[in-house]
Amino acid sequence: MQNVFVYIEIEKEEVREVSQELLTKGRKLANQLGVELHAVVIGTNIKGKVEEQILPYGVDKLFVFDGEGLFPYTSAPHTDIMVNLFKEEQPQICLMGATVIGRDLGPRVSSSLTSGLTADCTELEIGDYDDKKTGTLYDNLLYQIRPAFGGNIVATIVNPDHRPQMATVRSGVMQKALYEGACKKEVVYPEVKNYVSAEAFLVKVLTHKVQAAKHNLKGAPIVVAGGYGVGSKEGFDQLFQLAKVLHGEVGGSRAAVDAGWIDHDRQIGQTGVTVHPKVYIACGISGQIQHIAGMQDSGIIISINSDPDAPINKIADYVIVGTVEEVVPKLIKYYKQNSK
Q: In 7, 90, 246, 269, which residue has its Cα 20 to 30 A from 46's Cα atom?
């Protein structure tokens, strides 16, 4: 008991990458706590098809719930399974992806168990908490860390008394890696009917369609990102030209998205995509906490900004002081000349 659990999100028989990222983090947390890493996956006709996408990430025990009506996802049966399983297993931590499904399922499970939940965490750590009001010292709590108040501060949230400690994390925030240590890799196949009531299946999905991504911003080795300092939608055309010659992708800050200069699915930051490129070129981006949370793990950060004191310059490896209109055309010109 008191183990770390990860909810595995799937699309038919394919495990979503965010779940593998959370397994990697969950394994580290479990090792720190000296407990096991458990995972639960729910779907239809998935037995024997998902296990090898999950176990290599350090899972000690995998619960596979396979039954009719469990895919596509609907709220009631998945909530019943998670709540009843957690009543049996009594985990101390549960991690979910901050996806459409995770945002629906997480609050339902936490509400049913009166456990609380922190959404959109950017970091997860284990630490102690000294409650000055009651004089109680709690050890080995989950630090649920996320930007707050519009990204102006970073808040560390703890849940001393209720279990499980639940958190959702966006795709790309954690980095996945196969686990090289020893783990049990036990798989169990519980009877679905013992966890779900017949009434839970009253809602059925008539059509299910998944739209493919328009770009590969998350996996791009080079990202050219623009902020409000780009100045206009036409200014972003230059960024697309630079990204094209560099074989990269274009992203933007929330301010640029709100201004209508770039599509929302290209937004980088706490409320957008998290990226880990080898090179990140920030054009006219001030560097608020919310944006930095989505790109701070980039290999090399280059800042182009007319303000030498812009916050993003503090984390940049290279700073070019100048306007986007001045600098970007020169970068395009010189790269084309030197790439022949």
A: 90
| DSSP assignments along 76-126, one per residue | HHHHHHHHHHHHHH--SEEEEESSHHHHHHHHHHHHHTT--EEEEESEEEE
In 3D space, the residue among 174, 176, 144 whose CA is nearest the CA of residue 160 turns out to be 144
Query: Where does residue 302 rank: exposed (0-12), middle (13-18), buried (19+ CB within 10 A)?
Result: middle
| Helix residue ranges, H only, 181-323 | 233-246, 254-258, 289-292
Give tens-digit pLDDT for 53-100: 999 999 999 999 999 999 999 999 999 999 999 999 999 999 999 999
Treating both helix axes as pointing N-terminal to C-terminal, what angle do 324-338 and 233-246 enclose, rounded to 10 degrees?
20
CB 10, CB 44: distance < 8 Å: no
Quote the CA–CA distance of 290 and 108 in Å, as a whole number: 27
Query: How does DSSP classify residue 133?
Result: T
The encoded tokens of residue 125 equal: 């750590």
